[in-house]
Amino acid sequence: MPIHPLAGKPAPDSLRVHIPQLISAYYIRHPDAAIASQRVEFGTSGHRGSSFSNSFNEDHIIATSQAICDFRSIKGITGPLFLGKDTHALSEPSFATAIEVLAANGIATRIQSRSGYTPTPVISHAILCWNRKNHAQADGIVITPSHNPPEDGGIKYNPPHGGPADADATRWIQNRANDLLQKPGSDIHRLPYEKAMACDCIHETDFIMPYVADLSSVIDMEAIAESGLRLGVDPLGGAAVDFWEPIADHYRLNLQVVNPSVDPTFGFMTVDKDGKIRMDCSSPYAMAGLIALKDNYDLAFGNDPDVDRHGIVTPDGGLMNPNHYLAVAIDYLFQNRPDWPKQVAVGKTLVSSAMIDRVAQAIGRKLIEVPVGFKWFVNGLMDGTLGFGGEESAGASFLRKNGQVWTTDKDGMIMNLLAAEITAKTGKTPSGQYQVLTSRFGEPVYERLDEPADPAQKAALLNLSPDQINTPYLAGEPILAKITRAPGNDLPIGGLKVVTENGWFAARPSGTENIYKIYTESFKGRNHLIQIQQEARQIVAAVMA
Predict the structure, then answer these.
(1) Is the dihedral of CA 147, 318, 503, 530 positive or negative?
(2) How far apart (Å, rounded) are the C-alpha atoms in residues 199 and 179?
(3) φ and ψ at residue 103, rounded to 5 degrees
(4) How far apart are CA 107 and CA 101, in angstroms?
(5) Which of 1, 296, 320, 440 is the most buried (most CB within 10 A)?
């Protein structure tokens, strides 16, 4: 995909979404459940859409909220439901709609006081802390479309394990919600907002300080404070905006929030590579504003609107590639958490860098490679068999210092603070630490491409078997593995991965667009990477024909 001329530049007024029209469309437009694109569809992180396209309207939130209430009932979930929201414009009315349904169903619901914002990892942390002490188990909902553009909305469900719901749960909720969309009526319970907020089951609480005060159990906050590191943070107008100053005050950090603005148009953003406003903290184009300030700080970082992603900016390296930082974090954590059991493993998604494989081998830890999606790390983090779970799209979480679970959803704040701990304890930035790794293991080149594919071709790629790959070589090297099921849990990866000694590619069809994604990596330089990409296209074209 070519880089848009506006990429990395301040967003012009012409790109800003008309918020009154967006909110009006949420209430006055209604989806047609007979049209697939207007139905509730849970992807890897919940249901997402826009009110302009009839894919995220009040009807969707009513139906999905009621479906979650029904799911709780059949599963016997009787503890509180922790409800959070991010700063997207559609999150505010969706949050109110969800409260109307939850209150009418008598669900004990906890929300941030004064209608504040709550990050995804904070909801996960709150669920786990409650469930550790109480028999009646809690769960949660987060109203967010993650880093998607300002016109989008989203809703996702976290069951009592605190992480993303598995496929069985999301399938049940999705199907129930679509049934309700088709035949709304007596099965939906709802109260007017003012009556809902007055119900005894709706409790305003403080999510901020319990999370902040507990950070010292997962990060060496004292070391960061004593180092005096000059830290800069850009919440990108997201739900972390009310968290960083309390963190700085509580732990006496030399930290500055460089952009405290909350604007539902996200008009303060620089434009992403495709010409859209997108709050992707792993994109150098979206993060151009913070990158420009890198020399003002010893370390700077950002988060996406629901704070489950991280972006690390260093004076000596700029914005780190997410794969690079995952490798550094793993190398550091497993050598600086003495209370973690020796059998605790490393978790990665199968499209993350093979640098992680080499690091895991060098530190003597088992590697658990899973399909794309953070939900595959939940059980391992819960029972402490995984010390770290990370994915290439800048999302990760890890255990407390004592080896117990912290969150089972991605936590961008602890990944940011870990970068500060690494710098404070080693004297090197994460970029500097990555250079140490490349001097030992080689320097990989990684790139993801998007290629066109019609529905039939995507289906063929989704259902292929390794036997369909006839070539014994990839880019001049013998093929060592042809993978359609993840080595870590033997589940379908939804595509193909082909591995050689010094390179690999993975091809996966998109669930929402007529494209397939090719992830590629080489430890032999860019020319070798280009050869992998060319041959990957040929291999995939043959199996999709």
Answers:
(1) positive
(2) 28
(3) -65, -40
(4) 9
(5) 320
**pLDDT (0 to 100) of residue 510:** 82
pTM check: above 0.85: yes
**What gap in Å lies between CA 387 and CA 354, rounded to an integer?**
18
> Rounded distance, CA 292 to CA 505, Å?
33
What residues are annotated to the active site? 146
Digit-coded pLDDT (tens) for 68-117: 999 999 999 999 999 999 999 999 999 999 999 999 999 999 999 998 99
Q: Say how many C-beta atoms besides its own lie within 10 A of residue 1's C-beta.
A: 8
**Per-residue pLDDT tens digits for 277-310:** 999 999 999 999 999 999 999 999 999 999 999 9
- In angstroms, the CA 21 to CA 40 distance is 22
Q: Give Cβ neighbours of residue 338 (< 8 Å, ≥ 6 apart).
A: none
- At residue 45, the 3 state secondary structure works out as coil
Within 46-193, strands assigned E span: 46-50, 81-85, 109-112, 139-143, 152-158
**How confident is the model at residue 512, as a pLDDT?**
66
Report pLDDT digits (tens) over 470-498: 899 999 999 999 999 999 999 999 999 99
Rounded CA separation 145/152 (Å) = 6
Comparing CA positions, the residue from 236, 203, 163, 263 lying closest to residue 83 is 203
Structure letter (DSSP) for residue 397: E
C-alpha neighbours within 13 Å on the C-beta side of residue 97: 24
What is d(CA 423, CA 313) in angstroms, rounded to the nearest whole number? 12
Look at residue 384 and give its three-state secondary structure. Answer: coil
Instruction: Collect the ranges in the chain with pLDDT lower than 50.
Output: none
Identify whether the C-beta of residue 6 lies closer than 8 Å to the C-beta of residue 286. Answer: no
Contacts of 172 (CB under 8 A, 6+ apart): 67, 71
**Is residue 161 a contact partner of residue 375, using CB atoms and an 8 Å limit?**
no
Q: What share of the chain is helix, strand, coil (3-state, %, to 5)?
A: 40, 20, 40
Q: Go through 322-356 and write b for each residue having 16 or more CB atoms within 10 A of its CB, e for each that does not.
A: bbbbbbbbbbbbbeebeebeeebbbbbbbbbbbbb
270 is written with which tokens? 């620089």
| Buried residues in 460-496 as b, exposed as e (16+ CB within 10 A) | bbbebeeeebeeeebbebebeebbbebebeeeebbbb
